[in-house]
From TrEMBL:
SUPFAM superfamilies: Aminopeptidase/glucanase lid domain, Zn-dependent exopeptidases. Belongs to the peptidase M18 family. The keyword Protease applies. Its EC number is 3.4.11.-. One of its GO terms (biological process) is proteolysis. This is M18 family aminopeptidase. Keywords: Aminopeptidase, Hydrolase, Metal-binding, Metalloprotease, Protease, Zinc. Its cofactor is Zn(2+). One of its GO terms (cellular component) is cytoplasm.
Length: 455
C-alpha cells in the first residue's frame, strides 16, 4: 500500500482524539461561555449557595413545562416534563473538599484566638496551610433564627489562615515523617483573632472575638453548636496561561458539571422524554445522609414527575419509570499532569483540552466499588455525541493499581437505570485551586445538551 492508502486506512479504522480548539470563532464562543461559568464558580462555594443560585436562575429562565424541587437547601432537581415514560437524567454533586469548623471551635492559645477544624473529603492537608481562607455557612441561633455568614470574599474583608511551621524548625518533621503524617489534622487550626479585650486581663483574645461576633451577628458561643460553617479558599477564579485557555478555581469538582447541566437544561429543545438536572450533596464523603445520592430525594422527584403526568406513583410504575431512564453521572476525571505522567496508562488516560470524558468504570483495583457501564449504553452515548459534533474522549482514573476513586454512578445504577460517568478532566483535582480547560467546559455543556435532546 502507498502512503495515501495507509493514511486513508488509518483515518477509517483508528480511534483518534485531539485538542478541541477549532479556530477563532470557536474560541470566542468558548470564552464567552467561560465568563458565565466564572461568575457561577466564584460565588457558589457551598452546596447551599449553589442551590440558591440555581433556584434564582430557574425563576428567570424556566419554561412552562418546567418545575424544580429542593431538599433541605442542599439538593436541587430541575425537571422538564415530557410525554414519554422514563427520563434523561444528568446527575452531578455540588459538595467539594473543604475544611469544616468543629461544633465547639473557638479557643485561645499563646495570645491567638483560633478555630478547631475537621477536614471534609479527600484533601492533601498541606495544601491548605498558609493560603487565604474564607468562612461560609449558616448559624442557627437558639431562637431558631438562621444567619447566613460569608467572611473573607470581599476586598475589605479579613481572611483567615491555617499557619504552617517555618522551614528553619521543620527538619525533624520534613526528614523523619511521611507527608501524610507530617500534617496533623488536629493542628489545622484557623487564626481568627489576636487583639485582647483588655490589656490588663489575660486570655481575653477569645472573648474579644466573641464580642465582635455578638455585635455583628448577635450570636453567642453556644450558637456554634447548631452551625454549619465551612472554610474555603478565598481565591477568585482566574484565567491560566498567556493564552487564557485554562481556568483555575476552587470547586471545579464537581460544580463544573452542575453548571454545564444547568445550562444544558435551560438551553435544550423540548424533548418527548422528561429531562432532569439533579444536583446532590455528600459525594465527597460517601454519598450518605438524607442529602446524598443514597437518600430518597431522587425517588421523591420521580414520584412528583409521575403525579404531574397523571400516573399513579405506585411501586410498579416507579420501578418501570426508572428502568426506562438513562443517566449521565456528571463527574470529573483526572487529566494527565505533565509532571506526573507515570501514574497514568497513556492509551486510556484523559487529557486536558481533549473534550468531555466518558468513564466506563471507576472504583479501584479490580473495579471494586464501581458501576461498570454496559457496552450497549456506552455505544448509544458515543452515537449521540458523534452526531452532535461533541469532542469527547475515553478515560480511566489512573493505572489499575495506582489508586482510584468513585462517583455517584453506582448508587444511581442501583435503581436499575443505565448509567455512565461523563465530565471534563481536571489537573490538580481536590486541591484548593483546580485547573480546567475552557474548551472541555464548553464540550461538557454540549455533551449534556445533546444527551437531553436525544431520543
Amino acid at each position: 500500500m502507498d502512503k495515501k492508502q495507509i493514511e486513508k486506512l488509518k483515518n477509517k479504522l483508528e480511534y483518534k482524539n485531539g485538542s478541541g480548539w477549532k479556530g477563532e470563532s470557536y474560541k470566542n464562543e468558548v470564552f464567552e461561555f467561560s465568563e458565565k461559568y466564572k461568575e457561577f464558580i466564584g460565588c457558589c462555594k457551598t452546596e447551599r449557595e449553589t442551590v440558591r443560585f440555581v433556584g434564582d436562575e430557574f425563576k428567570k429562565r424556566s419554561k412552562k413545562s418546567d418545575f424544580f424541587m429542593v431538599n433541605r437547601g442542599k439538593n436541587v432537581a430541575l425537571v422538564r416534563l415530557g410525554d414519554k415514560f422514563g427520563m434523561k437524567l444528568v446527575a452531578s454533586h455540588i459538595d467539594t473538599p473543604r475544611i469544616d469548623l468543629k461544633q465547639n471551635p473557638l479557643f485561645e492559645d499563646v495570645g491567638i484566638a483560633m478555630f478547631h477544624t475537621h477536614y471534609y473529603g479527600g484533601i492533601k492537608k498541606y495544601q491548605w496551610f498558609n493560603i487565604p481562607l474564607a468562612i461560609h455557612g449558616v448559624v442557627v441561633k437558639s431562637d431558631g433564627e438562621i444567619l447566613e455568614i460569608t467572611v473573607g470574599e470581599d476586598d475589605n474583608d479579613p481572611v483567615f489562615i491555617i499557619p504552617d511551621l517555618l522551614p528553619h524548625l521543620s527538619h525533624k518533621i520534613m526528614n523523619d515523617k511521611k507527608v501524610k503524617d507530617a500534617f496533623d489534622a488536629e493542628k489545622m487550626n484557623l487564626i481568627v483573632g489576636s487583639i485582647p479585650l483588655d490589656d490588663d486581663e489575660k486570655d481575653t483574645v477569645k472573648l474579644s472575638v466573641l464580642k465582635i461576633l455578638n455585635e455583628k451577628y448577635g450570636i453567642v458561643e453556644e450558637d456554634f453548636i447548631s452551625a454549619e460553617l465551612s472554610v474555603v479558599p478565598s481565591f477568585k477564579p482566574k484565567d491560566v496561561g498567556f493564552d487564557k485557555g485554562l481556568l483555575a478555581a476552587y470547586g471545579h469538582d464537581d460544580r463544573i458539571c452542575a453548571f454545564c447541566s444547568k445550562e444544558a437544561f435551560f438551553k435544550s429543545q423540548v424533548n418527548s422524554k422528561t429531562i432532569v438536572a439533579l444536583m446532590i450533596d455528600k459525594e465527597e464523603i460517601g454519598s450518605d445522609g438524607n442529602t446524598g445520592a443514597k437518600s430518597r430525594f431522587l425517588l421523591d422527584v420521580v414520584v412528583e414527575i409521575l403525579k404531574k403526568q397523571g400516573i399513579e406513583p405506585n411501586f410498579e410504575h416507579i420501578g418501570e419509570f426508572l428502568k426506562k431512564s438513562e443517566v449521565l453521572s456528571a463527574d470529573v476525571n483526572g487529566a494527565v499532569n505533565p509532571m506526573y505522567k507515570e501514574v497514568h496508562e497513556k492509551d486510556n488516560a484523559s487529557y486536558i483540552n481533549h473534550g468531555v470524558v466518558l468513564t466506563k468504570f471507576t472504583g479501584h483495583g479490580g473495579k471494586y466499588m464501581a458501576n461498570d457501564a454496559h457496552a450497549e449504553f456506552v455505544g448509544k452515548i458515543r452515537r449521540i455525541f458523534n452526531n452532535a459534533g461533541v469532542n469527547w474522549q475515553i478515560g480511566e482514573l489512573g493505572k489499575v493499581d495506582e489508586g482510584g476513586g468513585g462517583t455517584i454512578a453506582k448508587y444511581l445504577a442501583a435503581w436499575n437505570m443505565d448509567v455512565v460517568d461523563c465530565g471534563p478532566a481536571l489537573i490538580s483535582m481536590h486541591s484548593p485551586y483546580e485547573i480546567a480547560s475552557k474548551s472541555d467546559l464548553f464540550e461538557t455543556y454540549k455533551a449534556y445538551k445533546a444527551f437531553f435532546e436525544s431520543d
